[in-house]
Write a structure and sequence with these properties.
- The protein is mostly helical and 361 residues long.
- 81% of the residues lie in helices and 0% in strands.
- The protein is built from 13 helices and no strands.
- Helix 9 runs antiparallel to helix 10 and helix 10 runs antiparallel to helix 11.
- The longest helix has 39 residues.
- It is globular and about 80 Å long.
Amino acid sequence: MTPWPAWLRLGLLLPVLGLNAFVLKRLLVQFAPFPGLFLTAALIAFLLDLPCRWLSQRGLPRAWAIVSVVLVTMGLLVWAAVALVPLLIEQLSQLLSASPSLLTAAEQWIDRGQLWALGHGLPADFADLSSDLVAQFSRLATQLSQRLLGLLGATVGTTINVVIVLVLAVFLLFGADPIVDGLARWLPDRWRDLVQTTLERTFRGYFAGQVVLALILSGGQLLVFTALNIPYGVLFAVLIGFTTLVPYASAVSIVSVSAVLAVQDPRTGLELLAAAIVVGQIVDQVIQPRLMGSIVGLQPAWLLIALPIGARVGALYGVGDLLGLLLAVPVASCIKTLADAARAGDGDLRRPESPHAPGAL
């Protein structure tokens, strides 16, 4: 039998992938939000498996290691729910209450800018900009208020989802090795070792490193903001810290919160900007290289392309924009590693390559 030409096989690949993607979407959307809950539980189990393995390597039985890690994690979550979450909600409520005065101050700055431009003979018509700015900030404040009220009103549903995720994560921890081995058997023999090693190295290393960096950055900024008496310091520190989970999002959050404070008090806004940049640079230059190395192996341009695609795919398949953003980078890194291995040929598929350097693509 004569094999089909390569151009015909490649031409049929896209329609087949599109059909499979459409069927998968229709299937997953019907079961929403359970696909998102399952992925969240899998990520939590992936992260908790690191301290479990560390304890097991030091002689503690696997079952006792899992129980110890789960109890410590639950204790930290309870502490956060009791001590940190009410403070965050209080500061967010204060910020939303102060939004009208912030909008008024922003309009005044725009009017001053227009007068300055006219005084220097520059073309300036900021009227549309002012009205658009007020409308956008008002809409944002309204949406945040509604989401906060919705979150507070959906306590029962949120608690049930959290319990489901935690219980599922514990079961995944206990059955991690059999589950991984069972799924790996569906892969061709020549790809099995590479796929398992790539997924473990990329996902485990990336998410573990990002979570630790987010905690360190949040703690460092919380101390600095408290020392400087920055308004809404706890809220901004946690926001900036945990946006580190998404590449380049922390820079956007730093500029945004600095602008919000600078509208009311320029000096406070500059203090926050300087403090956040200094703490961020210390974490990026001192801690991040030791903690993560070059796990991702993607150029910044590919990261920026992967992020919106991940958010869109997450929304389409019912797992959520945020989870899609979090998964975009490690998934793109795994795809690149597997594509490089396929392009290199079958001979090296059983020997996974070392992590790529950041400029490898």
